[in-house]
Amino acid sequence: MAAAATIMTDQTLEARVARLESDVTHIRSDIAEIKVDIRKVKDDIRDLTEELHNIDKSLEGKINELDKALRAEISELRHALTSGLAANRIWMLLQSAALLAVMARGFKWL
To answer: Which end of the chain is more exposed for a tag (fewer CB within 10 A), N or C?
Structure first.
């Protein structure tokens, strides 16, 4: 009976070892697939990083162009406002002088 038990134990042990070997083979193939997937993900991330870098450079250039254009336009507006204010001052001085002249004539100062 001990011999029979030893034989059955050896058979079940062999079956278990065979199953473990099969499982290890599947695990290895799964790991190989995972490695391939990870490499693909790394490549995709590298490509996306390069695209984002290119987009960043492009946006930086466009922002710089807009900055220059806005600065030029603001400078033009500042110049227009300054010259407009100077013209308004001249008109106010002329109106004040005319009013003083009318008052001087009315009060017979002149």
So the answer is: N
Mapped to the 3 state alphabet, what secondary structure does the chain carry? CHHHHHHHHHHHHHHHHHHHHHHHHHHHHHHHHHHHHHHHHHHHHHHHHHHHHHHHHHHHHHHHHHHHHHHHHHHHHHHHHHHHHHHHHHHHHHHHHHHHHHHHHHCCCC
Whether the per-residue pLDDT at 3 is higher than 80: the answer is: no
Supply the pTM of this predicted model.
Answer: 0.49
